[in-house]
Amino acid sequence: PLPCSHRSRIVATWPLLIVVFGSASVIGAIACGLALMPIEIETSFDSFLISDVESSLRLRGFEKALASRSASSNRRLQEASGSDSGGVISTTKNLFLTYELYGRGSFLEENGGIFHPSGKVIRAIDKFEQGLTSMAPWVALCDQAHESERRLCQQGLSITQYMQPRLLYPPIQEGGPLVALSRTVTPSGLVLDGEGPEVVHPRTGLFLVQNEGLNGLLLPKGFNFSTAGSQPRSNIVRSIFQFKVPCGTTKTPQSERRATQRNITLQWEELFRGSIYPLLQEGSWSGDDDMHDISVWNGVRVWYAGSDIDSFEVKIILSHDYVFAACSIVYVFSYLLFHTRSVLLSIFGPLIALASVPLTFVICSFVSGSSKASFANFLGLYLVVGFGADILFVYTDFWNASAEKRPDLGQRMAWTYSRAIRSSVTTTGTTALAFLGNLASVIRALRQFGFFMGMCVVIAWVLITTIYAPLMVVNHNLTTCAYCPCSRRSLSNTSDDSLDGRRREAPSCKMRLLSLWLRLIHKMRWVIVFGSVVVVGIFLGIAIPRAEISRDLPSVFPPGHNQNLGLQVRTLFDDPGNRFESSPREVNVCNRQWADDPRDARGDDCVFHWCEATGDMEQPLEWQGQGTCSCYREEGDATCDRSPTAVAKARLIGAQNLSRSQLTSVVNFLAEQNSEVTISGIRRSTMVSSARVLPPMLLQSWETGDVSFQEVLYMKGLANRPTQTSLCGWEDVCYCTAVQCVDWSGGRRKPLPPLTLSPQRRLAFVELAKRVGGGRGPGRPVAPTSLPAALPAMVPRRLAFNRNGIRLRAVFGLEVQDTFQMLGHMDESDVWSYNELFDMRQPWTQRNILSFCTDAPEELQVSFLWCWMRDFRMYVRGQTGRFPARSTEFQDLARRYISVSTSATRGTRYLWVLGNEVKATYVSYRLQLDQNADTSEVLALKGKWDRYVAEWNQKAFKNSRGAFHVSSTWVEAEASSMLIRSTLETLGILCILGTAAMIVFTRSCVLSFYVIVCSVVVLVGLVFCMIVVAQWSFGLIETIAIIYFIGYALDYSLHIAYKYSTSEAVLGAPPPQFGSENALIRMQRTIFAVKSIGGAVMGSAITTAGASFFLMFCNLMLFKRLGTMCLLVTVFSGLVAVCPLPALLMTMGPVNPGVSCCGLCGARQKKIVKKRSSKPASE
What's the predicted TM-score (pTM) here? Predict the structure, then answer.
């Protein structure tokens, strides 16, 4: 290899060529790397909770398996043009809008809130959504959806569709005035499209929502329509829109499908960021003055969520935070300009350091095979400014100092390299090791970011050494006009007296200030040392009792942001899952005639009966299973051939909680009101058993608009006709309410004596009638015979249901990947697969899964469960009379059950279906233990589940084994416990690596120990400010930040310690004699260390602190908090490096560093000490 002077001569001779070639190489490498592996920003902070422990890996595989079901289900859809073209695959984009009353809108709360009778808020929401869906980008994306799915994005699922439906009226026919009036006032049907001219009564709209099964989707969970009273109240509702755009078929090449999906995603992002987001922020559109600001004018706040919206908002906030990044760059440029006195170095110096970030990303992408980058990696731009500035100042100061030491540029370059490389390698290596020590962490994001920043620090040092150092020569040549044709100066006379004078002028002032500072420290050295110890003790004594461990996931967004408060609002609603319907439907209303079954009478089901009411709506009768009913009878036709029996019908409106004895008394009472026909005792008992609950009755007062919903109980029986002239049948209607329907019979309705019911004990089957009677479809039987006799024995005893309890899933038939990569991201297709040995067709597999559901011990704290196999058992017993199904029948029975089931586990929500075969299933549990319980309690319960599942797998049939359980609460609890343990382990590794590196560089265990002590002091100050001053809880982000900033805590003190240990420290003239010879040596070494590197240390600290200061104003909470901590660490590190550490070195610093660690350098050090006074000060 060439001598050092020769290499330095090349740099000094061809600096511009080296700078241009080096810069071009870096730019080319970055451009080619990003072109081959484009960056993908991972915007979710959830990745910081992904730990390489079993529960986290299993949950990840389970979630990926769940996500794969939508794609597989789309592949099963067949195009309308024919099956030969393959199944259609669609890309789905969802938008959830939640409307909440606040501020000026809260005055509506007392009168129904959003459901205020005036309909003001409903109409406002309708106008807002009309403006949203009429935007050109929205229409363009919606038009790409399949025609059958287009209504979901044109109108969506909105509360306005049910509160503002179109009413369909039959044509008025000839007849009496009451008939004409009834047919005019009450509609025959409703179109649920939100295009009605007026808002219906809230109870009407809410009943329609309930009838469609959308309670938890459009209304908050727990909103009970039946107990809402005459005026329902809610301050919050939700609307859902879905874009389901085809991106190809199963026969379309995968590359083409992915390209189409990317194009759809880009359109969706452009729609949201360009149109939806501004509208949601402003709440106005296209000059609609009446709705200029929905959030202020109506007191309604709009929360939003949906596909990729969290990542879009991260990008939006990042685009806003670029302003603060620009401010940081301007600040760094300004200070570099002040420090270097060069515009060229001030501009290109930070750019060279910042180039290390994309270059590191390219290198890491090829090493790990993944181009995903967490948005936290953008923090590297700020961190590398601090590390880069440190190295820049070291090179700049040594280059300026070389003008006094060496006259020739080659010699100056060699002198600068020899000093700057040794000084910068010390801190660069230690800082890089501090970051690389995070490879031992189980937190994947921490491990990856530690590797990224460790490489980034090293690459920044390499770029500054190879490009910035020659750039200093270029700057020197430009400032001395070496390349100017009219200049007579050459490289040989660049060190003339005038130039030396200019060079010395600024350093002399800095040296005088440092000398004064060191004299002050020397006078107060004992006070500073012991005062620091006392302050650290006070800080620890105050901070430790107040420290709180937080298990909450740190928020990325500001406190009042949509992704924070909006997330809390979203938890009030159910997960939509697969409950989207292609379009709101037209529903029928029974308003003219009664029927045994609405399907028989109209050819379709009625959602409810609707009639105009008379009576007092303000004081309805509170029916409690007793009271008086007003009854009327309408006789049938006079001729019924020679039938020996007549049909007797009875309807009770508003009667609730009737027992069987009460129903018997009703039948007896009505049978006694007709002497022409008789009903035998057997037929009366049969009539009681036929009791069914029909769709409810909506009684509306046309004058006031008030409505009342009442239950309708229907009974039917036969009576004996003694003669051919006897009645052919009749219909009795009893109103057990204060309101009644208008008589539309034209005088055929005749009053009966009042029906009085006495209090009776409520029976279990009546509760069943209430539970199953409502909803869509024909009436259901009241009798309890619809339940299998053995069912109660199959349902284990449960604890009280806790809505905030832990949610757990037990999975059967899947295998998940439980290994992890040290770096990079594993392919999503490799994290899960079907268990080839699992076979649900086998009877023993069905028995084992059923026993898993029903035999869970009480120690597992199951308060509720959703078990597909348990509901499938009921269906199979009804079809074949026995369970389990035979292996040859299982798939056929499963397909039929999926198609017709109305149970809670209906459809394929709890299944994985491949083709026509059920491949896997999962059971969902809600546990009694709260999700926010103490970590130790959560982990104890997890241990019980681990033992239960392991024992079940051991005892189960071989085709049933492989079950496992997952829960996000397990992951959070393990992440918290593992985070603390992993943090302690990582800190230990960092301390060992840092100490080893410092011993190598300083050759002194004592100095290494002092640097560790100074780092601990810095971290104690940081923790004190976090816990006491800022009152932060100690959570994930704080733990990660402390690990990140260990390198900062070591950096500045290590600079001083390294310079203290060098042999140059004792070569100059000693300071004036005072004290012993050892004290003189300590003083001389300390003065040399602070004067030689103190300027670079303070310059780096000021630059880093200034850049971090602007981070405190960022919108991203991660940047804001880490910026605050970075600022504190920088300030504390700089202060400790120039105050307590010099005082400690003056007091107890090693006299001959290296002797105490090993004896190899002792003799040389002693010789240098003896010769120190013979060396001239200029050297």
Answer: 0.70
